[in-house]
Design goal:
With 252 residues, the chain is α+β, with helices and mostly antiparallel strands. The protein is built from 12 helices and 5 strands.
Length: 252
């Protein structure tokens, strides 16, 4: 592939920082640097300092590197790679299953973090369509591999996955979105009926969030609106979310 324009990488770094901010402000993932990350986002600018902060996210960054290498992309923060990890795109379909297995063992250490039975059940899902997107790690790995090592609850899985909602009301710093929450239904995970959820606009300088209109679709991570996304992106995000919910339900 051709070299990626520098602007594409800059956009990818800023996009990635908006998704990473939510768990980082709660001290779940990444370095203790939420104020610095927030300042970069508010300024709408990046330098090597922001890139180094994002590289310190021990779960996210290895996935970005893996997706980039699988697609012969030089820069892990290429915006297409960032989109593949957080939302999903065609890059996820270019993944070699055996290399994905080695990635989980060597980069994430899951063979050591999970008992052998659970690790084998997890990696069996690679043959059934699991791909290295954020929804896979949240819904199928079942552990936070950042600062906190404990089993997910339903509420934490719902907050940690990237969800999407349609803006129904705007009220100053608040956004009211129609969103499907993760629920248990007949002992299995599912997306529930749409509800209205109130969110705060954290990124006042982000034109995607500042300029939201009724009917726009926004992606959400740990109750933080990350960016406005297209209908097509929302459908792709739904596709990969439902795929990994289905795979998760095999081992519940």
């Amino acid at each position: 592939m051709n070299a990626v324009p520098n602007g594409n990488v800059i956009d990818g770094i800023l996009k990635c920082s908006r998704y990473a901010f939510g768990p980082n402000r709660l001290h779940y993932c990444g370095p203790d640097a939420n104020r610095e990350i927030f300042s970069y986002i508010e300024a709408g600018a990046q330098d090597p300092g922001l890139e180094n902060l994002l590289k310190a996210f021990r779960t996210m960054y290895p996935y970005l590197k893996f997706i980039a290498q699988a697609n012969k992309i030089k820069e892990p923060f290429d915006s297409r790679v960032v989109e593949a990890y957080w939302i999903g795109n065609e890059f996820l379909e270019n993944i070699d299953r055996n290399k994905f297995y080695r990635h989980l063992v060597e980069e994430h250490g899951l063979k050591k973090k999970l008992d052998i039975k659970n690790f084998e059940r997890l990696t069996a899902k690679l043959r059934q369509g699991a791909v290295p997107t954020h929804s896979f790690h949240v819904l199928d790995v079942w552990r936070r591999t950042g600062h906190i090592e404990r089993e997910h609850t339903l509420e934490s899985m719902d907050s940690c996955r990237i969800s999407w909602g349609t803006v129904r009301k705007l009220d100053g710093p608040f956004i009211f979105v129609e969103i499907e929450l993760l629920v248990y239904k007949n002992g299995k995970l599912a997306l529930g009926e749409p509800v209205i959820k109130k969110l705060s606009r954290y990124f006042n300088a982000n034109p995607d969030i500042e300029g939201l209109k009724i009917g726009d679709i926004v992606s959400v991570h740990w109750d933080v609106p990350c960016e406005a996304i297209t209908q097509n992106q929302a459908e792709i995000l739904r596709k990969y979310t439902l795929r990994h919910i289905q795979l998760a339900n095999q081992t519940i």
